Amino acid sequence: MAATFDIVFRNGVVANHDGLGPRDIGVVNGRIAEIGALGAASAGEVVDCTGLTILPGVIDTQVHFREPGLTHKEDLETGSRAAVLGGVTAVFEMPNTNPLTTSEATLADKVARGRDRMHCDFAFWVGGTHANVADLPELERLPGAAGIKVFMGSSTGDLLVEDDSGIEAVLSQTRRRAAFHSEDEFRLRERKGLRVPGDPNSHHVWRDPVTAMLCTERLVRIARRVGARIHVLHVSTGEEIDFLKHHKDVASVEVTPHHLTLSSDDYARLGTRLQMNPPVREPHHRDRIWWGVSQGIADILGSDHAPHTLAEKAKPYPESPSGMPGVQTLVPVMLDHVANGRLSLARFVDMTSAGPQRLFGLANKGRIAVGYDADLTIVDLKRTATITDAQSGSRIGWTPYDGHAVTGWPIGTIVRGRKVMWEGDLVTPSTGAPCLFAEALPRNR
Ligand code: DOR
Description:
Elements: E1 4-16, E2 19-28, E3 31-36, E4 42-48, E5 53-56, E6 58-63, H1 76-85, E7 88-93, H2 104-114, E8 121-127, H3 136-139, E9 145-151, H4 164-173, E10 178-181, H5 185-190, H6 203-206, H7 209-226, E11 230-232, H8 238-244, E12 251-255, H9 257-261, H10 267-270, H11 283-294, E13 300-301, H12 310-313, H13 330-339, H14 345-360, E14 376-387, E15 404-415, E16 418-422, E17 425-426
Parallel strand pairs: 1-4, 1-5, 6-7, 7-8, 8-9, 9-10, 10-11, 11-12, 12-13
Antiparallel strand pairs: 1-2, 2-3, 5-14, 14-15, 15-16, 16-17
Helix pairs in contact: 4-7, 7-8, 8-11
(4S)-2,6-dioxohexahydropyrimidine-4-carboxylic acid (DOR) binds at residues 64, 96, 155-156, 181, 276-277, 306, 322-323.
């Protein structure tokens, strides 16, 4: 008797461990149950994917969704709406909310807010601070925790561990791979006078490449001393790429679509909308980060989706806040690089699903394989489209890519076998749930 599935994705070209090829995917209870030629199978629903490419669900491991406390910019519902409209099936959200996510109670609050309200699955980074360092071993293992995140240089919010002894204390406590915003706070303080009022192009002069490199060197030195794994978020300089290639045993590397796509040439056009920490820099940094992608030095792509309202961005620099949205545009912007030959589709998958699984030990996501969650990002690699502010699912309603024409577009977002987004529409009520991690599996599931 032919097998029966809840849903079958038929006639798509699937990117998985067998390479790129025509395969059907059958799903039972939200998990992938069979991959192959399933034309004879019966199914509750059949999704015709003719002409489409099916990728493992894209996991964005760095987003700021602002809830609780800053929900005039974004909340977990709107941020995850933007995510699934952009083909993202799971996000790891950052702790610089208000209150900060630095305790069991604040983490549990976020998990409760996200469950069945977020459109995609999720985990939350817990902020490491001087005050909670003794609690980190328990905090990093709590349900819904992605791990510990530390700001070494100040950015939006009050999280900061700027000193070597503080970093050493954090890394002595953590067992999971902790993530770092690596900009040297001491140099940032010394150089504050270099900010030119009204000129956002001075942002990357103030927060210069040495600021990033100094901090990353300190961080790697401490990680080696302590014997800890570290994840360096949003690497923005060629110097760090050339440094980190010698330290892949301890350090993983995140790069962002904006550092790969935009450059300091764009400040004149985008003004404070381009203002971001660490900054978007001169084109030669962008080129060296691409080299890091081509050589496998970069492990994963994160959007660092960091929404601020246009009214906030309209304040004159440097009163304007740093951060730009990105979760919805990660897939189309990077697929356009695929279409242009700068990135292979296999490398895109490596950096957006296999990479997050490898670095953070996702228990059942990151692959199109039997037994895994049926999280799928279904794309049309040939579709040409223009990104616009009007498409934004985010509360802030703007994107630095407004008017950017791309080839390659997300058509469907499938979370645990449910069609959440199809052709730009949200088609299923939200059923977001926490991601599971091999290093912190809850007992008696
Ligand atoms: O530009 C940034 N904005 N960088 C960060 O690290 C934080 C983010 C935010 O939360 O706005």
